[in-house]
Amino acid sequence: MEEFGDIVYIKQRTSYKSILYKTYSVFEYAVEHFDVRFVLKTDDDAFVHVPPMLSLLRSLCETPGCAAERLYIGRMIQESEVLLQPGHKWNNYVFFNHTGLKTYPKYAMGGGYILSGDVARTLIQVNRAMKLKFTPIEDATLGFWLMAMDLRHVDHERFYTWAASCCFETLEPASGGGAVDPVTGEVVGGGGGAKVKIMDAVTDDLCSADPWLILHKIDSPTKMRMLGDEARRCGTPESAAAVRAAAKKAKAGLGMGAGAAAGTAAGDAAAATAAAAAAAAVGAARVTADGEVGGAMSEGAVEGAAGVGGGGG
Q1: How far apart are CA 98 and CA 145, in angstroms?
Q2: What is the mean pLDDT of the segment spanning 257-265?
Q3: What distance separates the 2 farthest-apart alpha carbons in the chain?
Q4: Residue 47: CB partners within 8 Å, gap ≥ 6?
Q5: I need a labelling partner for 56 at 20 to 30 A (CA). Which of 92, 160, 217, 304 fits?
Q6: Do the beta carbons of residue 160 and residue 214 sit within 8 Å?
Q7: Would you give the end-to-end CA distance of the chain in angstroms?
Q8: pLDDT at 67 > cutoff 90
Q9: Which of 8-12, 19-23, 108-112, 164-168 tops mean pLDDT?
Q10: Which of 79, 85, 154 is closest to 115 using CA atoms?
Q11: Torsion angles phi and psi, residue 258, rounded to 5
Q12: Region 201-221 average pLDDT
Protein backbone atom coordinates (compact mmCIF):
# COMPACT_ATOMS: atom_id res chain seq x y z
CA MET A 1 0.00 0.00 0.00
CA GLU A 2 2.79 2.42 0.92
CA GLU A 3 4.67 1.66 -2.31
CA PHE A 4 1.88 2.01 -4.85
CA GLY A 5 -0.97 3.71 -2.98
CA ASP A 6 -3.51 1.45 -4.68
CA ILE A 7 -5.14 -0.27 -1.69
CA VAL A 8 -8.23 1.17 -0.02
CA TYR A 9 -9.48 -0.03 3.36
CA ILE A 10 -13.25 0.19 3.76
CA LYS A 11 -14.71 0.29 7.26
CA GLN A 12 -17.17 -2.55 7.58
CA ARG A 13 -17.94 -5.56 9.75
CA THR A 14 -15.31 -8.29 9.62
CA SER A 15 -17.05 -11.61 10.34
CA TYR A 16 -17.76 -14.31 7.74
CA LYS A 17 -21.45 -13.42 7.87
CA SER A 18 -20.60 -9.81 6.98
CA ILE A 19 -18.81 -10.53 3.69
CA LEU A 20 -21.81 -9.37 1.67
CA TYR A 21 -21.74 -5.97 3.39
CA LYS A 22 -18.05 -5.62 2.56
CA THR A 23 -18.66 -6.71 -1.03
CA TYR A 24 -21.44 -4.17 -1.44
CA SER A 25 -19.17 -1.47 0.02
CA VAL A 26 -16.48 -2.35 -2.54
CA PHE A 27 -18.98 -1.98 -5.40
CA GLU A 28 -20.22 1.29 -3.91
CA TYR A 29 -16.71 2.72 -3.56
CA ALA A 30 -15.80 1.67 -7.09
CA VAL A 31 -18.78 3.30 -8.80
CA GLU A 32 -18.56 6.46 -6.67
CA HIS A 33 -14.86 7.10 -7.20
CA PHE A 34 -14.15 5.72 -10.68
CA ASP A 35 -15.76 5.42 -14.07
CA VAL A 36 -15.42 1.65 -13.75
CA ARG A 37 -15.89 -0.75 -16.62
CA PHE A 38 -15.55 -3.91 -14.51
CA VAL A 39 -15.31 -4.75 -10.81
CA LEU A 40 -13.60 -7.97 -9.69
CA LYS A 41 -14.56 -9.28 -6.27
CA THR A 42 -12.11 -11.85 -4.93
CA ASP A 43 -10.64 -13.11 -1.66
CA ASP A 44 -7.21 -12.45 -0.23
CA ASP A 45 -6.35 -16.14 -0.63
CA ALA A 46 -6.98 -16.08 -4.40
CA PHE A 47 -4.33 -15.67 -7.08
CA VAL A 48 -5.48 -13.47 -9.98
CA HIS A 49 -3.74 -13.90 -13.34
CA VAL A 50 -4.12 -10.29 -14.46
CA PRO A 51 -2.87 -10.13 -18.09
CA PRO A 52 -5.12 -12.91 -19.47
CA MET A 53 -7.99 -11.64 -17.29
CA LEU A 54 -7.76 -8.24 -19.01
CA SER A 55 -7.61 -9.95 -22.40
CA LEU A 56 -10.78 -11.89 -21.57
CA LEU A 57 -12.66 -8.74 -20.57
CA ARG A 58 -11.63 -6.91 -23.74
CA SER A 59 -12.76 -9.85 -25.84
CA LEU A 60 -16.21 -9.83 -24.20
CA CYS A 61 -16.90 -6.15 -24.79
CA GLU A 62 -19.82 -5.48 -27.15
CA THR A 63 -20.44 -1.78 -26.53
CA PRO A 64 -18.23 1.30 -27.13
CA GLY A 65 -15.72 1.61 -24.32
CA CYS A 66 -17.20 -1.47 -22.59
CA ALA A 67 -19.67 0.94 -21.01
CA ALA A 68 -22.84 -1.19 -20.98
CA GLU A 69 -21.89 -4.85 -20.98
CA ARG A 70 -24.47 -6.41 -18.59
CA LEU A 71 -21.84 -8.99 -17.61
CA TYR A 72 -21.69 -11.38 -14.67
CA ILE A 73 -18.61 -13.63 -14.94
CA GLY A 74 -17.41 -16.45 -12.72
CA ARG A 75 -17.75 -20.17 -12.01
CA MET A 76 -21.50 -20.55 -11.90
CA ILE A 77 -23.50 -22.86 -9.65
CA GLN A 78 -27.14 -23.76 -10.26
CA GLU A 79 -29.73 -25.17 -7.87
CA SER A 80 -27.40 -25.17 -4.89
CA GLU A 81 -29.18 -26.20 -1.69
CA VAL A 82 -30.07 -23.56 0.89
CA LEU A 83 -28.62 -25.02 4.09
CA LEU A 84 -30.78 -24.67 7.20
CA GLN A 85 -28.85 -26.71 9.78
CA PRO A 86 -28.50 -24.69 13.00
CA GLY A 87 -24.91 -23.63 13.62
CA HIS A 88 -23.73 -24.49 10.10
CA LYS A 89 -21.29 -21.99 8.57
CA TRP A 90 -23.51 -21.67 5.49
CA ASN A 91 -26.86 -21.68 7.29
CA ASN A 92 -29.18 -19.20 5.57
CA TYR A 93 -32.53 -19.08 7.34
CA VAL A 94 -32.71 -15.41 6.36
CA PHE A 95 -32.85 -16.27 2.65
CA PHE A 96 -35.31 -19.14 3.16
CA ASN A 97 -37.65 -17.09 5.32
CA HIS A 98 -37.56 -14.23 2.82
CA THR A 99 -38.07 -16.29 -0.37
CA GLY A 100 -39.40 -19.72 0.65
CA LEU A 101 -36.82 -21.19 -1.75
CA LYS A 102 -34.84 -24.31 -0.86
CA THR A 103 -32.35 -23.82 -3.69
CA TYR A 104 -30.50 -20.68 -4.75
CA PRO A 105 -30.79 -18.99 -8.14
CA LYS A 106 -27.72 -19.32 -10.35
CA TYR A 107 -24.71 -17.55 -8.86
CA ALA A 108 -20.93 -17.27 -9.27
CA MET A 109 -18.86 -18.75 -6.45
CA GLY A 110 -17.36 -16.17 -4.14
CA GLY A 111 -13.67 -16.95 -4.60
CA GLY A 112 -13.74 -14.55 -7.53
CA TYR A 113 -16.29 -13.07 -9.91
CA ILE A 114 -16.71 -9.97 -12.05
CA LEU A 115 -19.54 -7.51 -12.62
CA SER A 116 -19.45 -5.02 -15.44
CA GLY A 117 -19.61 -1.43 -14.20
CA ASP A 118 -23.18 -0.87 -15.37
CA VAL A 119 -24.40 -3.84 -13.31
CA ALA A 120 -22.53 -2.66 -10.19
CA ARG A 121 -24.00 0.85 -10.59
CA THR A 122 -27.51 -0.57 -10.94
CA LEU A 123 -27.18 -2.54 -7.71
CA ILE A 124 -26.12 0.57 -5.81
CA GLN A 125 -29.01 2.58 -7.28
CA VAL A 126 -31.57 -0.12 -6.41
CA ASN A 127 -30.33 -0.46 -2.84
CA ARG A 128 -30.46 3.28 -2.28
CA ALA A 129 -33.96 3.51 -3.72
CA MET A 130 -35.59 0.39 -2.28
CA LYS A 131 -33.11 -1.60 -0.14
CA LEU A 132 -31.76 -4.95 -1.27
CA LYS A 133 -32.22 -7.93 1.02
CA PHE A 134 -28.94 -8.85 2.72
CA THR A 135 -28.39 -12.45 3.85
CA PRO A 136 -25.34 -14.16 5.41
CA ILE A 137 -24.16 -15.98 2.24
CA GLU A 138 -22.48 -13.40 0.03
CA ASP A 139 -22.04 -15.11 -3.32
CA ALA A 140 -25.47 -16.79 -3.38
CA THR A 141 -27.18 -13.57 -2.34
CA LEU A 142 -25.50 -11.64 -5.12
CA GLY A 143 -26.94 -14.13 -7.60
CA PHE A 144 -30.34 -13.58 -5.93
CA TRP A 145 -29.98 -9.82 -6.36
CA LEU A 146 -29.13 -10.23 -10.05
CA MET A 147 -31.67 -12.92 -10.97
CA ALA A 148 -34.26 -10.48 -12.34
CA MET A 149 -31.73 -8.64 -14.53
CA ASP A 150 -31.30 -9.65 -18.16
CA LEU A 151 -27.56 -10.24 -17.89
CA ARG A 152 -24.93 -12.07 -19.88
CA HIS A 153 -23.90 -14.89 -17.51
CA VAL A 154 -20.43 -16.21 -18.35
CA ASP A 155 -19.64 -19.51 -16.64
CA HIS A 156 -15.86 -19.58 -16.98
CA GLU A 157 -14.02 -22.83 -16.23
CA ARG A 158 -10.72 -21.03 -15.62
CA PHE A 159 -12.08 -19.44 -12.46
CA TYR A 160 -11.02 -21.98 -9.84
CA THR A 161 -13.19 -20.68 -7.01
CA TRP A 162 -14.14 -23.86 -5.17
CA ALA A 163 -13.90 -24.02 -1.38
CA ALA A 164 -11.09 -26.60 -1.56
CA SER A 165 -7.35 -25.98 -1.73
CA CYS A 166 -5.61 -26.52 -5.01
CA CYS A 167 -2.47 -26.31 -7.04
CA PHE A 168 0.39 -27.64 -4.85
CA GLU A 169 1.96 -30.97 -3.99
CA THR A 170 4.35 -31.91 -1.17
CA LEU A 171 7.74 -33.18 -2.26
CA GLU A 172 9.50 -36.26 -0.92
CA PRO A 173 12.08 -35.33 1.71
CA ALA A 174 15.75 -35.62 0.75
CA SER A 175 18.53 -36.85 3.01
CA GLY A 176 20.27 -33.95 4.67
CA GLY A 177 17.26 -31.64 4.38
CA GLY A 178 15.26 -30.21 1.53
CA ALA A 179 13.17 -32.24 -0.88
CA VAL A 180 13.54 -33.93 -4.23
CA ASP A 181 11.86 -32.52 -7.35
CA PRO A 182 10.35 -35.58 -9.08
CA VAL A 183 11.05 -34.19 -12.57
CA THR A 184 14.56 -32.77 -12.37
CA GLY A 185 15.78 -34.89 -9.46
CA GLU A 186 17.19 -31.74 -7.85
CA VAL A 187 17.03 -31.08 -4.12
CA VAL A 188 14.73 -28.14 -3.42
CA GLY A 189 15.14 -26.00 -0.34
CA GLY A 190 16.55 -27.01 3.00
CA GLY A 191 15.92 -26.75 6.69
CA GLY A 192 12.71 -27.69 8.42
CA GLY A 193 9.15 -27.79 7.17
CA ALA A 194 7.50 -29.51 4.26
CA LYS A 195 8.58 -28.46 0.77
CA VAL A 196 5.98 -27.95 -1.94
CA LYS A 197 5.88 -27.32 -5.66
CA ILE A 198 3.14 -26.20 -8.02
CA MET A 199 1.47 -29.20 -9.64
CA ASP A 200 2.63 -29.82 -13.19
CA ALA A 201 -0.91 -29.66 -14.56
CA VAL A 202 -1.36 -26.22 -12.97
CA THR A 203 1.86 -24.77 -14.42
CA ASP A 204 1.01 -26.20 -17.83
CA ASP A 205 -2.43 -24.58 -17.76
CA LEU A 206 -1.18 -21.35 -16.21
CA CYS A 207 0.99 -20.74 -19.26
CA SER A 208 -1.33 -22.23 -21.88
CA ALA A 209 -3.44 -20.49 -24.52
CA ASP A 210 -6.40 -20.97 -22.14
CA PRO A 211 -4.81 -20.14 -18.78
CA TRP A 212 -6.12 -20.14 -15.24
CA LEU A 213 -7.55 -16.72 -14.39
CA ILE A 214 -8.27 -17.21 -10.67
CA LEU A 215 -6.86 -19.86 -8.33
CA HIS A 216 -8.62 -19.84 -4.97
CA LYS A 217 -7.61 -21.20 -1.56
CA ILE A 218 -3.89 -20.46 -1.85
CA ASP A 219 -3.11 -20.80 1.83
CA SER A 220 0.22 -19.02 2.29
CA PRO A 221 2.06 -15.92 1.00
CA THR A 222 4.90 -18.19 -0.16
CA LYS A 223 2.57 -20.17 -2.42
CA MET A 224 1.06 -16.94 -3.75
CA ARG A 225 4.54 -15.67 -4.65
CA MET A 226 5.38 -18.98 -6.32
CA LEU A 227 2.32 -18.68 -8.56
CA GLY A 228 3.13 -15.06 -9.37
CA ASP A 229 6.72 -15.93 -10.24
CA GLU A 230 5.59 -18.81 -12.44
CA ALA A 231 3.08 -16.61 -14.25
CA ARG A 232 5.84 -14.10 -15.00
CA ARG A 233 8.03 -16.88 -16.41
CA CYS A 234 5.39 -18.04 -18.91
CA GLY A 235 6.86 -18.29 -22.40
CA THR A 236 10.47 -18.23 -21.18
CA PRO A 237 13.05 -21.06 -20.84
CA GLU A 238 12.73 -20.67 -17.05
CA SER A 239 9.04 -21.65 -16.94
CA ALA A 240 8.24 -24.94 -15.21
CA ALA A 241 6.90 -26.42 -18.45
CA ALA A 242 10.09 -25.51 -20.30
CA VAL A 243 12.28 -26.88 -17.50
CA ARG A 244 10.34 -30.17 -17.52
CA ALA A 245 10.67 -30.44 -21.29
CA ALA A 246 14.43 -29.84 -21.06
CA ALA A 247 14.74 -32.43 -18.28
CA LYS A 248 12.85 -35.03 -20.32
CA LYS A 249 14.98 -34.30 -23.36
CA ALA A 250 18.15 -34.66 -21.30
CA LYS A 251 16.93 -37.99 -19.88
CA ALA A 252 16.09 -39.20 -23.37
CA GLY A 253 19.57 -38.21 -24.54
CA LEU A 254 21.16 -40.13 -21.68
CA GLY A 255 19.05 -43.15 -22.56
CA MET A 256 20.14 -43.00 -26.19
CA GLY A 257 23.76 -42.64 -25.14
CA ALA A 258 23.51 -45.68 -22.88
CA GLY A 259 21.87 -47.64 -25.68
CA ALA A 260 24.62 -46.72 -28.11
CA ALA A 261 27.29 -47.71 -25.60
CA ALA A 262 25.57 -51.03 -25.03
CA GLY A 263 25.40 -51.58 -28.78
CA THR A 264 29.12 -50.86 -29.14
CA ALA A 265 29.97 -53.24 -26.32
CA ALA A 266 27.78 -55.93 -27.90
CA GLY A 267 29.45 -55.35 -31.26
CA ASP A 268 32.90 -55.62 -29.73
CA ALA A 269 31.93 -58.86 -28.00
CA ALA A 270 30.58 -60.26 -31.28
CA ALA A 271 33.80 -59.35 -33.07
CA ALA A 272 35.88 -61.00 -30.38
CA THR A 273 33.77 -64.16 -30.56
CA ALA A 274 34.05 -64.28 -34.33
CA ALA A 275 37.82 -63.77 -34.20
CA ALA A 276 38.22 -66.52 -31.63
CA ALA A 277 36.16 -68.86 -33.79
CA ALA A 278 38.26 -67.97 -36.81
CA ALA A 279 41.49 -68.55 -34.91
CA ALA A 280 40.23 -71.94 -33.84
CA ALA A 281 39.45 -72.69 -37.47
CA VAL A 282 42.98 -71.71 -38.45
CA GLY A 283 44.40 -74.02 -35.85
CA ALA A 284 42.12 -76.85 -36.99
CA ALA A 285 43.09 -76.31 -40.62
CA ARG A 286 46.74 -76.57 -39.82
CA VAL A 287 46.36 -80.12 -38.62
CA THR A 288 44.64 -81.29 -41.79
CA ALA A 289 46.48 -83.33 -44.41
CA ASP A 290 46.42 -80.39 -46.87
CA GLY A 291 47.81 -77.69 -44.56
CA GLU A 292 48.35 -74.99 -47.21
CA VAL A 293 44.81 -75.14 -48.58
CA GLY A 294 43.34 -75.32 -45.09
CA GLY A 295 45.46 -72.39 -44.01
CA ALA A 296 44.32 -70.24 -46.94
CA MET A 297 40.68 -70.96 -46.26
CA SER A 298 41.17 -70.09 -42.61
CA GLU A 299 42.75 -66.73 -43.44
CA GLY A 300 39.70 -65.91 -45.55
CA ALA A 301 37.45 -66.87 -42.69
CA VAL A 302 39.37 -64.53 -40.40
CA GLU A 303 38.98 -61.59 -42.79
CA GLY A 304 35.27 -62.29 -43.14
CA ALA A 305 34.82 -62.58 -39.42
CA ALA A 306 36.70 -59.33 -38.88
CA GLY A 307 34.45 -57.63 -41.42
CA VAL A 308 31.30 -58.85 -39.65
CA GLY A 309 32.70 -57.86 -36.28
CA GLY A 310 33.64 -54.38 -37.51
CA GLY A 311 30.22 -53.83 -38.98
CA GLY A 312 28.57 -54.81 -35.72
CA GLY A 313 30.76 -52.37 -33.82
Answers
A1: 13
A2: 50
A3: 125
A4: 214, 215, 218, 224, 227, 228
A5: 217
A6: yes
A7: 70
A8: yes
A9: 108-112
A10: 154
A11: -65, -40
A12: 95
